[in-house]
Structure formats: structure tokens, C-alpha cells
Amino acid sequence: MTVAADVLEIDDALAQYDPVMGLEVHVELNTKSKMFCGCPTEFGAPPNTQTCPVCLGLPGALPVVNARGVESAIKIGLALNCEIAEWCRFARKNYFYPDMPKNFQTSQYDEPIAFNGWTEVVVDGETYRIEIERAHMEEDTGKSTHVGGATGRIHGASHSLVDYNRAGIPLIEIVTKTIEVPGEKAAAVARAYVSMLRDLLLALGVSDVRMDQGSLRCDANVSLKPRGSSTLGTRTETKNVNSFRSVERAITYEITRQAAVLSSGGKVVQETRHWHEDTGVTTSGREKSDADDYRYFPEPDLVPVAPSREWVEELRATLPEAPSVRRARLQEDWGFTDLEMRDVINGNALEPIVATVELGVTPAAAKKWWLGELARSANESGQELDALGVGPEQVAEVQKLVDEGTLNDKLARQVFEGLLAGEGTPAEIIEKRGLALVSDDSALIEAIDRAIAANPDVVEKVNSGKPAAAGALIGAVMKDMRGQADAAKVRQLLNEKLGI
Amino acid sequence: MTDLTRKTAAELAELMTSGQASSVEVTQAHLDRIAAVDGDVHAFLHVDAEGALAQAKAVDTKRAAGEQLAPLAGVPLALKDVLTQEGVPTTAGSKILEGWKPPYDSTVVKRLKAAGIVILGKTNMDEFAMGSSTENSAYGTTHNPWDLSRIPGGSGGGSSAAISAYEAPLAIGTDTGGSIRQPGAFTGTVGVKPTYGGTSRYGLIALASSLDTPGPCARTTLDAALLHEAIAGYDPMDSTSINQPVPAVVEAARDGDVAGLRIGVVKELGGEGYQPGVEARFHEAVELLTKLGAEVVEVSCPHFEYALPAYYLILPSEASSNLARFDAMRYGLRVGDNGENSAEKVTSLTREAGFGAEVKRRIILGTHALSSGYYDAYYGQAQKVRTLIARDFAKAYEQVDVLVSPATPTTAFAIGDRIDDPIAMYKNDLCTIPSNLAGNAAASFPCGLADEDGLPVGFHVMAPVMRDDLCYQVGAALESALAEQWGGVLMTKAPELGVTR
Amino acid sequence: MPSITREEVAHLARLARIELTDDELDHLAPQLDQIIELVGQVSQVAADDIPPTSHALPLTNVMRADENVPCLTPEQALSGAPAQEEQRFRVPRILEED
Lengths: 500, 501, 98
Prior knowledge:
The structure holds three protein chains of three kinds. By secondary structure, chain A is of the alpha+beta class. Chain A folds into three domains: 18-222 and 292-314, no CATH class; 321-433, no CATH class; 441-498, Orthogonal Bundle (Arc Repressor Mutant, subunit A). Chain A has helices at 10-16, 67-79, 183-204, 244-263, 309-317, 323-334, 338-346, 350-358, 363-381, 392-404, 409-420, 426-433, 441-454, 456-463, 470-480, 487-498, and strands at 17-28, 65-66, 83-84, 91-94, 104-107, 114-123, 126-139, 143-147, 159-163, 170-176, 216-226, 236-241, 271-276, 281-287, 297-298. Chain B is of the alpha/beta class. Chain B has one domain (7-304, 386-493): Amidase signature (AS) enzymes (Alpha-Beta Complex), CATH 3.90.1300. Chain B is 39% helix and 13% strand. Chain B has an eleven-stranded mixed beta sheet with strand order 1-3-2-4-6-5-10-11-9-7-8, sandwiched between helices. The longest helix of chain B is centred in the C-terminal third of the chain and has 24 residues, at 376-399. Chain B is globular and about 70 Å long. Chain B starts with 8 loop residues before the first helix and ends in a 15-residue tail after the last helix. Chain C has a domain at 1-44: Orthogonal Bundle (Histone, subunit A), CATH 1.10.20. Chain C is 33% helix and 9% strand. Chain C contains three helices and three strands, in the order H-H-E-H-E-E. The longest helix of chain C is centred in the first third of the chain and has 18 residues, at 22-39. Chains in contact: A-B, A-C, B-C. Chains B and C meet through helix 10, helix 11, helix 12, helix 13 and helix 14 of B and helix 1, helix 2 and strand 3 of C. Strand 9 of chain A pairs antiparallel with strand 3 (88-92) of chain C.
């Protein structure tokens, strides 16, 4: 295994080179059955319990296309402003690999179902247009577990164990044309694109888009050309970059690595590279060679797909509004400033906030938690916001407790802390940590009496016509109550007591 | 008691319906016959006596209970080893699948079982149906019951030999380039390739997906039609299956009237390279059909000469991909798994050991034809030639109802004769291949014995897509006219096999 | 000049994962050369405007509803496996030893 080459600082790299990117995203559809057979697609089922002669590639078995898979592909194509093929075929991509039951992948080659599209992403308030080359249908492979090597790695393994439950699950591969944006924005645009795709796919309802379960996987092609030049450089393909953050990191890394190679007079090798989340580097995979002759030909076991224009228009009518239109609408509904909205988008908090608002929370409160406590935690742990284990339901629950006066913001933050640490439901955390505000008047009055007794000088000042001095008494009560009192309530009771 | 193995399927069904014989008796008679002669013929790779008798008993029980049964219920059948049958060894004639027991039934087998047809066992074939002689079987050559020193044809030589040797009244074959019709011709039996998509390929171990077609083998036209009807029809498990009613094949076989039928003799399928005895019997049969009232004309199909080269591009290309699944990972043979070798190495060693010479030849040819840089010139062009051949057929069918030719250029050749001359072997299928490329129905019917060698000659009928009934119409007319001349069907002239055990 | 060389055949055999022996290569290369000469005829026949044909009837849009059907049991699925472990297919190491 090649150890990471030297890298340049990103600023130095971008001073000399312009990056050119291409992104291939594989999305697992959320159909009930596989692309070519009736087996279920549940994630996490016991090994080899969701297979049949077709998806195991048993001799004699034949594929039949899942209509919902085609429908989803068309929806995705339409949402990406693609043309939808009037007639297209599946093709066999021939190569040997133990996790591929037939040793060919049923895919599409020169006749994708959707092609020539575009979409937009917003980064730092700027809109970037991304051209879509194609979106095509194919099937997933089985899953190998590697045994006998270090930490489950394929390198050094003595053998592997294959589970074919995943084999045949429908995939849509979405391929961009080359993306050329200002170098310092490149990685962020790539990240925004993948994040936008996730939102889009969720809105379309065609995929669960669980990146942690591998239902959205990204391959990033990166090449560099000298600044101002139009000659394309040699590209590398970094495989399976499986979180938004790693899309950004992996692309940045490849830019800095390739820049180092080029600026020292070397040549970038056209190859597949692997991204290592833990060390933040890519390493060389196999080199592309003539051996990658996939011998594509039209799948003779399937007949062409020719979606009628009526069907396509019916599907178009079901599409949710475009992300940019939706964003504008939400911003207006929520009354956010441009800056606030940008923070929300950049923080990947749009969908969580939408979901939280739908549960009755005010947009401002929803934004406060998602961009505050939760974003901070996500950032610290290097996780995506939606992978934290705290969802809109819980945010709404906590906010409700605040609204009811059971919690104040400070206590609420502690509840989130508990939620993130997996300590249970908000109610359980409040109970365990003893966090609820004391709403029992008698306990507050006792504390007020203690504060008055302990601060005769302050009382004197208040009585002598300086009501503002009462603030010190409230502070004392709050301290006494270890923060678990509603300050407004304390003020009210204190005022009554002091007769002001 | 009469020898039940000499009866036709239709006669056996009648005997069982009228209570004169039970399915167990009929099945046992055929199992006994297999035990007696298969040592010489080697038509079977696996005899499932237990399963067959259990199936027969179940049919008898149902019949005794007064249940309504399908026309062929209780009749035994030999199944080509290329179709999966749950729990019964299925090898496709290859070492690479030795011992594999499929966990599922092919659609053909499902329909046979549903019709109460008793499956005696699996028949020998060229490995993965690649061949015209059964010499490419990994399990030994089948012998032609007419002359044990000769091949029975292929790839379905086992199925045709089994019915020709009276080991079964019916058999299932699969036809990719002639694998039902050519062995039918060589063994003096009837072999029908239905319209592509007329019978389901689900569970048929694929050779060439766009060509493979399961179909019936029998000693009479009516038997073939009855079996055809039992297995044919739309199957949602096969995307290429045609969702239309099955042509009225049984009716056509019973009717057998060719008066007014327009028959075209294909000019290009005859002459040089055709054995004189084959041509003589063929032309006599054409004469006979004329006498029966058919209008016969000569028809030209100029692109048929390119059928063979197109076929030997399409078939190996598809086969190279279809056979990639035999990789030693999930089923079948595994060679060289010593804890050191990689999966890739084990796959390569297994395929080297598990595939025979012809299979390797075609996989490599297909791999070449699909390689980047060659695809357009080879596979792409070959698919265009299919269009030209289909147009030749379409043009001919404007003039005539069916086309006819000899089924094969020669009669059955001697074992070993062509084994190392692939091109000579490929030329066996000159007459049969065009119908696979165009997908239309075609059949071979016995039309006599060649003077030179006294071996059977096949009369080939090609009918339009989904007009399978026309094949039977012609076959039945020919069969009854010839039987009148001979005093019985051609099979009655076959030499008696020595009963060895 | 042959239309296919021994080296090309060896390359194709690697692509097709068949570990041919030298004897087989010696035998196969000239045979394939002959066959390729035969099949090569097709390249001259059809004009550019001839569409390809793949099946007897030009079917389109054959699809199934997105519904589940019973699977094989894991025992059935693994019944033909040359080796198995933990209800999975056991296969040799995927990468060559470095």
C-alpha cells in the first residue's frame, strides 16, 4: 500500500492549479423488492436471508425489471432537469468479483434512462450550476466481510465471507459533467452538491439516503490543470466517499496531493484511490488498465424500456418543488435573513429545521437548537447533523418543555447533552440529572426568605427606593436553586415579598 | 401384455385414462427399458427412479380419486440436463456443475409437474449445449440407437436418443442453433423449436440468451404437439416470454391437412455439401406434400449464408457472459482453494479444470468479440445480419406459408469424426440456425432413410413467429402419408437394440 | 498474418478467467484464427442503415410490480456453496498476497 505522498498547502495548490471535478453518486432506492427479483431490501437482515435464484445468479435464473425502480429513476432524472430516454436498454458490464453473483453487473451503458440535466447548489450565498451527464439504473453487489487480516481490511485477509442480501438492490448512478468552479470553492461545491442530492432524493421519496448504511455513496474524480490553462490533467477516482464532510475533505486532499506531485515535476497516475476517513488521506488502489475491458453489450435477458411520454408527464406532475424554489419559500415563511438562511444551508440544517417546524416549533427556536448545541456537537464528533441520534421529534419535545416552563435554555442545553450521550428520553434525562425548574412556590419563597435574610444591605437599598438592586437578590436565589428556577417567577415572587 | 415402451404418449394417456394401465406400470416399464439399454446408448446422466415412481403414484392416486387430469398425466418424460429440477442433479453436461442440486424448478419443470408428466431423469448433452454430437459432454458420448457407432446429434443428443431407444415416449430439449431439430433428424424422431419466447427460459441454464428455446421431442407429431401445449405459454419470470395464446398446435397435429398450403423450398439450403441421400429423401417429401395438395415454389433467402458466421458471434458473446457465473464461489466445482491462492486464481483454475475444450473455445471467442474495439465489427454487425435474415423470412412469407429444407446437410456421422474440426462441426447447423436468429418456429420430422447409410433424414419446416401450428400441420401430413407408404412411422424401421441387462 | 495471436488468446483467457496451459494455447490460437476468419464475414454484409435485431418480437416495457416474493432459505441459498462460514459464502482471499 502506497503511503500518502507529500501534499501542498491548499492555498499554495490553488495558487498554481485549477481543480476539475466529476462526481458519481450511487443511490440505493427504497423499493420494497430488488431491481430484478422479488427479494426484500431490508437493511441489516441476517446474512443470505434475502436471496433467490435470480439475485444469487444461480444457473438458469432470469431477471425481470422492477417497475418502481424505473419510475424512481425517471423521477430522479426529471428532478435533475434531465431528458428522459424514449427507448433505452440495460447492458451487461462484465467483470469478475466474488461479491457479484453473475460476474456481470446489469447496468446501463450508452443508453441511460436520463441524460443531459442540470441542477444548482448554493455555497456562501453564491449559486453554482452543475451539469448532469446522466442518471442510469443498475444493481448493487453483495457484501464481503474480510477475515484473518487486520481490522477487517481486505489487505492481508486469509479469506472473505460473502452475504448476497444486498446483491440486486436497485441503484441509480448519477454522473455529473466536469465541474469547474473557483478552486477555493471546489470542495465546498462538491459537498453542497451531494448534500443537495440527499435532500432531493428524500423529497422525492425514492431513497432513504442513509449514508451511514451506504445507501448513498460518492466517487469523486479530481484532476488539476495549471491556472488559466485549458488542458485537462490526468484524473484520479476516489471511491466510496461516504459522508458530506469526507466529500469535502477527500477532494481537498486530492487537490493538495496532485498539486504536490505536479509541482515537483511528477505525473499524476490515472488510478482508483481509496479514502481513509480516519487518517484523512487517499491511497492508491489498482491502476486503470486494459484489463478493465468491461465488454458491455445489451442485456439479452431483458427487453428495452420505453417510457411513454404520458407516463413521464404524470411523474413530472408528482415532483416536489425544486430545491432553490423551496429554499426561497421557506426563507420567506420563516422570516430568516439571507445570512441566517445561508448558515442554515451551510450547516446542513435545512431538513432538520423543516421537520422540527412541522412538529410545531417556531422556526427561530428550531434554528437555535440545530445550529447551536447540535451543530457544535456534530462538528466536534465529525458527524453529520442527521447522524447524531437526536432527531426533530426530540428537539420539539425539549422545546415544548421550555415553552411550558419546565426547562430554561440553560437546562435545555444540558438535556441535549444527555440526549447526545444516549442517556434516554428528555423526561428520563431531566429525572436522572435532576434538571427541572422548581415551580413549587413554597420552595422558591423559602429561598427568597433566605436571600433576604442573608442580604439585609440589599433589602435596605431596595426599600430606600432603588428597585434595580433587587437583581442581586434574584441572582442569589438562582444560585441557591442551582439555576433550576424560572427567573421571571423568582422576580415576581420577590417583588410581591418586597412590596414593589 | 403389450410393450408399454412402444406406445406413443397419446396411446399411453389413453391406456391410463381407460384404466388399462397405471402410471406406475408405464413408468416402471420405461425404467426397466432404461436399465436394459442405456448402458449402450448412454442417453441419461441421471435416472431418478424413486422420484419418477413417486410422481407416477401421485398421478394414479389422483386419477383413482376421480380428479380431472391434464392430457399427458402419468406419461413419462426424459429431461435435458440443462433445465433445473429442484433437488435433482443438474450439470448441463459440465464437470463444473458436477453434483449441483438446484434449489428451484425451472418453469418448464413446474409445468411438466403440474401436468402430471413423470420425469424419469436427466439426459446427456454437449457441455452447456455447445456442440452437435454430445461428444462435448463431460460425461461421455451418447450413442445413436440407429447405429451405436454414430453420434445422435447434439446438443440434445441424450433426449432424442432416449425417445429413439424407447427409453421414454417424450423428452424436453433446448434449441439454440438446432439442438432439438438436428438430433431429431439424426435419430428419426420429431423435434420442435417453438417460437423464441413461446416457451419459458426460466431455469434453462443459459447458453445464448437471445437464441435458447426449450421445446418438445417425441416419436410422433401429435405427441410433440401435446407436450408443446403442456409447456408453452407466457411466463412472467422470463422477460422475453411472449404474452399471447399458445398457437393451436394439437389441433394442427390432429388435422394435418396441407391442401392449399403454400410451401417454399429454400434455394440456398441444398446443393453442394449436402449428402445425396439427404437431398433425395427431402425432395421426395416435397413431392409427397405436393400430391397432398400443397403449392410448392422455390424461394430465395440470400442472407442465410451469413447466418452461420453471425451465429458464431452472437452465441459465443452471450455465452462468455452467461458462463461467467461459474466461478467456484457459490456453487459447483472449486479447484485450488489451498488457503494461499486468491479468489481470482481459484476461479481461473476451476474454469480451466471444469470446462471442456469447446466451452473454452467459445468463451474466448465471445470474450474477443465483445472486447472494446471489436464490438461494432462483430456483435453489432451480427445483430444487423439477424435483421437481414428476418427480412429474408418476412419477404418469403409474403409468398408462402412455410419454408422447408433438409434439417441437416448429412445424416449422423461417426463418433470422433469431427471432434477436432470445429468448423466442420458447426456446419451441421446450417439449415437450423436461421430460425434461431430470426426467432421463428421450426421443426424437424422424419422423412426416410438415406440410401448411402440407411440412417434417418430430417425434413425441416420453418413457420412464422407464433405460427408454430403450421409446422405441426405439415409434419402431421407428411407423417401420415409416409406411414401409409411404410406401414408405420419411421421409428418402426429402427434396428432393435441388444438388451444388455 | 493471423487475425488473432497466441498472446491475444492468452490475454483473452485471463480476461475470461481460464488458466489455459501452453498446449491449449498452441492448439487454440490457430483454431480461433480459423473461426474468426469465418465469422469475420459478417462485417461486410450489413449496411449502416440496417437496425440490429435482438429478439423474435420487439417487446418493450416488460416489468413486474414492486412486490416481495418468498426468498430461498439461507440453507437453500448456501446448499451448493463449496465452502461456507457464519451463514455466508466462504471465498478465498480477494487480493493476491503482496
